[in-house]
Amino acid sequence: MVIPARSFREAPGVVELQGITKEYPGRALSFRGTKLELKGPLLWARNLTHAFRMKAEDTPSVTAIRGMDLHIGQGEIFGLLGPNGSGKTTLIKIIAGLLKPTHGEGTVAGIPLGETRAIRQRVSYVSTTGWMGLEWALTAEENIRFYGQLCGLSRKLAAVRTDEALRMVDLWDERKKHPSALSNGMRQRVILARGLVLATPIVLLDEPSVGLDPVTRDRVLETVCHTLASRGQTLILADHDAEWVERAADRVAILDRGRVRGVGTPRELLQNVSHLRVLDLLIQASFTARTAPPSVIRRWEANERPGPQGFTHWRGLVEESPEALAMVLNWVCPNIRQVVEVSFRAPSLQDVMGLLGEEYPHDE
Ligand SMILES: Nc1ncnc2c1ncn2[C@@H]1O[C@H](COP(=O)(O)OP(=O)(O)OP(=O)(O)O)[C@@H](O)[C@H]1O
Ligand SMILES: [Mg+2]
Known about the structure:
By secondary structure, the chain is of the alpha/beta class. It is built from 11 helices and 14 strands.
């Protein structure tokens, strides 16, 4: 979805973070309180091992977010992209008032980060990756309505908002079914609908696309994005599906190891790689890099396709130049008769993520 001509950078921020750091403390190796302290008979041996694994693991502390500054404007659809462990969920939990940062300051909907209880009343947090328990004795509709009432909506308002949310996530026909009779993707949509029923100023979605087929993902999530944007709600979403985030978000932050490596509209972020092209080659041969790649290749990967015919798919990010194709072909597969397919395309945000540390240099 593209919502043009909206500028959020000058608008007052609904989320303002300055120098946010989040460190998860490590757990020191300690046998105190575990069965390892006991000097019992050999009979204890199995329990001992178990206790050791469970309790005495020596884990170092992890800095999940490192000095992050972020400004998210009211009504913005803001995407967080980044590889596993880059800090997306931690950041979302800080904005949701579920975690306090170790250092730094900021506000969410004008409330200082430390006032987590007040923040929680202004955000809806939907995580589709963890288990956000549905009541199995209730139907999809009842689950959503029950949640709304539990969070303080009147009976009437909860009913109206539940109907709205069910339609938004395209579950109207399934509303009378119990979770046990719903598919995984449908259950996930009930959880999503439950997060929409409160109509809070900020909605946080952690990996909403997981488990949804691409058609449902586009239809449901676009409806959700459009509806929230038209109501002036701010939507912050973290997802691995860079292609979808590129289409859905007004602005995107690319996270890597707890830092923001790039932030801007998808178009702005892609400008950093406008001099590159993604080159796909299908060759009927195996591939081994015997010499260093030509300098026009920024990064590459080769995957042999299973099967008797011995195809290899080679993909590279290549500098755009008149000689590039010839140079790459000469390196990858000098025997041109073995080249089955060649295709060039502009890079996507997914490719930008693959370039972390190059166009978006690391500072460690
Ligand atoms: N409760 C925790 N205790 C200790 N370390 C944690 C905890 N939660 C997350 N981490 C660590 O913090 C870092 C960031 O994790 P986070 O879950 O925020 O990443 P993410 O970008 O959401 O990853 P993914 O794409 O896999 O969901 C990781 O190194 C992770 O191991
Ligand atoms: Mg996560």
